[in-house]
Amino acid sequence: MPDSIQHLPTEATPPNEAATAQATAQRRRLRLAQGILLLFHVTGFLGLGFAEDPSFYLQFVPLNLLLTVGLLLAYQTEKTATFWWFCAVTMAVGFFVEVIGIRTGLLFGFYQYGPTLGTKWLGVPLMIGVNWLMLVYTTGVMARYLPIPDFLRALVATLLMVGLDACLEPVAVRYDFWQWRFDVIPLQNFKGWFAVSLILQVFFNRTHFAKHNALAPFIFMLQLLFFFGLGLLS
To answer: What keywords tag this UniProt record (predicted)?
Structure first.
């Protein structure tokens, strides 16, 4: 074979073009995930806020939560064993503090869960652990953008969680996520939320894994607007 044929240069994508193509693909996947979440939340908002009988939409609340958390975790940059350990511990702690809560009334006040959040164990929906993970993780990731010490980040993330809970509570009662004794949301609930959230945020900061997720801020804002909007309609 002639040398001119043997040494023909092979075409290769320049590194900068490959990086640009990869970044473009990542942006497209992010937009797709945001679009799916927006579709589900807008549909749920319209159904719960304006339908005469919202029971059809309420049955999809656990599915919506699972979809949201599934997409959120898919955008975790590095899924190490330590990361999954954080997820498991956070879900377990979030679930069992609620078990203690409904049985004693010491943490959050006296309340009971309704059927909206799905299957229960020990009187607490299994989705509650998933919800705690979503809130701790999203707010913890958002606080990492701040150039402040870890404890102050934990404090900021905790305040974000309590703020979201304040928007969520009236909606949760209206749609039977849970019910409070005497139909009064006690101040103790927010104190308990603050204490447990702060502990979990400190745990988040002290657990070593990559704390970057492009979808986390979008999910937090979507949840905030969803519950705040429904609260205005109630």
So the answer is: Membrane, Transmembrane, Transmembrane helix
